[in-house]
Amino acid sequence: MGGAGSSWRVATMRPGEDPIYHLAAALDTKQVLGTDGELASTNRVLLEATLRRGTRGLVEAVRQARIQPEDNLLIVVDQFEELFRYRASRHDVSKNEAVAFVKLLLEAAKQTECPIYIALTMRSDFIGDCMDIPGLPEMVNNGQYLVPRMTRDELRSAITGPIAVGGGQIAQRLVTRLLNEFGDESDQLPVLQHALMRTWNHWRQHNANDRSLDFEDFEAIGTLRNALSMHCEEAYQEARAGYAEKVAERMFKALTDTFSDPRGVRRPTTVKELSAVCEVPEMEVIRIVEMFRQAERSFLTPPNRVALNSRSVIDLSHESLMRGWTRLTGWAEEERASAAIYVRLSQDAAWFAEGQGGLWSNPELDLGLSWKQANQPIAAWAERYNSSFLQAMEFLDRSEQERGRIAAERERERKEKLRYTQLVAGILGVLAIVAIVLALVALKEKRRAESNLQLAKKAVDESLSSAGREQARAGADSPQMEEFRKELLDKAETFYSVLSRQYSTNEALRSENASAHSRLGDINRLLRRYEDAVQEYNDAIARFEGLQSEYPSRSQYPRALAYAHNWMGESFRLWWETAPQTAPNGRSDAEKHYDLALNIQQQIHDREPGDSVAQQELARTYYNRGIVRYDDGNIPGAEADFRKGISLLELLVRGGDLGDSGRSTPRPAQDLARVYNNLAKLLERRNEKESDELYQRAIATANALSKKWPSNREYQMELAQYCDNYARLLAVQNRFDVAQQKNHEAIDLIEGLIIPSPSVSMSLVKALQLRTEILEAQGSVSEERRESDRLLETLKGLSRSQPSQEHPEFHVFYMNLGINYLGLAKSNLASGDLKGAEAALERLTQVLPELSTADRETLVKSYRKLESQMWGAHGRAASRHPDLLRRPP
């Protein structure tokens, strides 16, 4: 360029959303290729048409402009990386247009007919993207210049120089701190500039020029880390005060793009487009923009000296805003997630329209409906990602309708099978009675008792294992499930109580007798009857010790003995925690039994090192003893036990194997997560770094279990507990952002566990309805009335949370129940039970308001007829509920 001369015409542009249009606009100025007068508006149209004519369009436009021979044209394409985001976010036609724009520049740079020079500016991390466009890498290589990073001395001058020019002074220690905190990220220079501006303003407002800028000024504005975020929050709070926070959120989401490029790029948008996306008038958008581009608050461009109109292009002033403003970071992530769902929905809708895909079903459908409900998408927003908005929304609606149709079809099939189910239920009831009778007979026959005992024991053990998961149950189950669990334990206790009273010299029966006492210890422990549990475990230990001494070659007796000692220790520990005033030597007795269990289990492990069950039991006893030692103040002993448990369990779960899906005992991975959590809690004050790592391991392990078995409430409850414990540690470390995130995860998990299950309530209603029909068929009037009353109360409770008008199926249940009460009244009246008939009619009056008009009128006629017969025969009033029978519901 040495001989290019000094006469230059300079056109500066940014690619934006339409690079060729913006190039034409940059050229169409009087200082470049534009004209004055009546032809000015026509000239831009001609320029754009010429540019779009072919790869030599730019050359032709310059040639046709007939500029002076000595004039040179310099085209500066600023923010060139916008072009890569533009190509990634548009359809094939627009991608071709981006390539055409680059070819215009390349052809203009190569030719020699016209003095055209091209300069591109872009972030260095986008250089690799140039490979996507043919010819561009070679040209970039020929003229590439990387702006070097400033040295420490240069940074020092950049900090102290402007302050000295402004007549101020800065403390040397603040300069040193700024230099030390200045990171390697590309955003640090504008962040530093902004922080210094804010520090200078604070110093001027709170200083009479009698001191230097110092830490107090720097920290007041949030330091280098938070200065930008705090300043942005000031503007956002102004928007909130004007009830425009939602408009501000939508506007910044529209201006920020992390979907097409995870690194984050700006998305310049006109006021008109922002108005459509935010669903507010253009003047409201301009009002919000002005809040963010005031003097010394230039977060948005153009500068505040430029008046805004419908075609004004609004943009972020710098990418650092996307990473420095905490709230915008969250908005950008929400926008990225929302756009990802929409793009997937649009693609699947297109495939469905082409016959290459099907409608959505769960879980995709639930995800899509939740996204639609939460985001309320509109066409103006969707246009930026995929223009098939109406097709996508129609696809989602059809998917929902199809799911409803399938559900209705299944309901019809269910009703058709109801009669068959009733018959099968009756047959199963008879078979159950026969089975009970046969079991009683079998118990009286000694020869057959020993074989049948194993079958019965297996069934009860399975029920007990379902009810008796020993840890992390607090809050994990609903009250109904806890009641069912207690019922299972009570039934298991009855069985084992009978078994424990059997006596025999037969080894197998003696073993079963000892196991029965051990099981009774489990049951009493789970029912929190710790004194009874200790007694039963003592009986079991005595019997297993006798069997072990008589049959030393049997491996099952040491295992059973270690099991009893371990859970004896656990019973003493829980007893001491819940009622220390009644627990004799709770902690010392607990540790003594853990020691006995460990001694036996270590011998088993040494003898059979490949036995994974024995290894897990050994690890569990170690960390149980560790808990007792921790409670007793023996911190070194507790830490040693926890680390031993971890080393044993990590060998079992190495390789990511979480265990099979049919276990009734805790999986090794679940035990490992628990002991990670225990050790992390122990180390919180002594070694925060290791405690942090252990909490993360506990959360990762529990999260893997929860994802593999999402229906396991216990895993979710434990995961919530670990997240909360970790959040507490993070809060102590002042890492409040991450602490808040983990606390939110815990809250979300717990809220998911307390959501009631309407389907379970409906299943209970259906089961009660079936029971009343069976009792009616059997002629059991008293039982039928009791179950009918229970059904009525259940329906009332369900109706309070789910109004019957919103669930037509409720009317069917109420109608059947009303017919039941009429039948009961007739039966009682026929047998002379006047009070029973009166009570049945009284219950019927509670059912009538829940019925539809037609069903209600049907029952009212029968009600009046029966009431007339009943009260007429005894000389009493015709009706005690005339208003109820006359008014429509």
Task: Identify the notable features of this structure and list them briefly.
889 residues, mainly alpha, three-stranded parallel beta sheet, three-stranded antiparallel beta sheet, extended, disordered C terminus
Widest beta sheet: strand line-up: 1-2-3
Shape: extended
User: Which parts are unreliable, with pLDDT below 50 for 5 consecutive residues or more?
Assistant: 466-481, 875-889
Helix content: 55-70%
Q: Tell me the span between the first and last alpha carbons.
A: 93 Å
Biggest pleated-sheet summary: 3 strands, parallel
**Mean pLDDT rating:** 80
Give the structural class.
mainly alpha
Q: What's the tally of helices?
A: 38
- Count of beta strands: 8
Portion of residues in beta strands equals under 5%
Gyration radius, in Å: 40 Å
Care to give the gist of this entry?
The chain is mainly α and 889 residues long. The chain has 38 helices and eight strands. A three-stranded parallel sheet has the order 1-2-3.
Report on the architecture of this protein:
- The structure is a single chain.
- The protein is mainly α and 889 residues long.
- The chain is built from 38 helices and 8 strands.
- A 3-stranded parallel beta sheet has the order 1-2-3.
- A hairpin with a 7-residue loop joins β4 (256-257) and β5 (265-266).
- The longest helix is centred in the middle third of the chain and has 28 residues, at 326-353.
- The radius of gyration is 40 Å and the shape is extended.
- Mean pLDDT is 80; it is low at 466-481 and 875-889.
What is the fold's blueprint, element by element?
Layout: E1 8-13, H1 19-27, H2 40-51, H3 57-65, E2 72-77, H4 82-89, H5 92-110, E3 116-120, H6 136-143, H7 152-165, H8 172-181, H9 188-205, H10 215-220, H11 223-241, H12 245-255, E4 256-257, E5 265-266, E6 269-270, H13 271-278, H14 282-291, E7 300-301, E8 313-316, H15 320-324, H16 326-353, H17 364-375, H18 379-382, H19 389-416, H20 418-444, H21 446-467, H22 479-500, H23 507-526, H24 530-550, H25 556-578, H26 586-607, H27 612-631, H28 635-653, H29 668-682, H30 688-708, H31 713-732, H32 736-754, H33 758-778, H34 781-801, H35 809-830, H36 834-847, H37 853-873, H38 882-886
Parallel strand pairs: 1-2, 2-3
Antiparallel strand pairs: 4-5, 6-8, 7-8
Helix pairs in contact: 1-2, 4-5, 9-11, 12-16, 13-14, 16-17, 16-19, 20-21, 21-22, 22-23, 23-24, 23-25, 24-25, 25-26, 25-27, 26-27, 27-28, 27-29, 28-29, 29-30, 29-31, 30-31, 31-32, 33-34, 33-35, 34-35, 35-36, 35-37
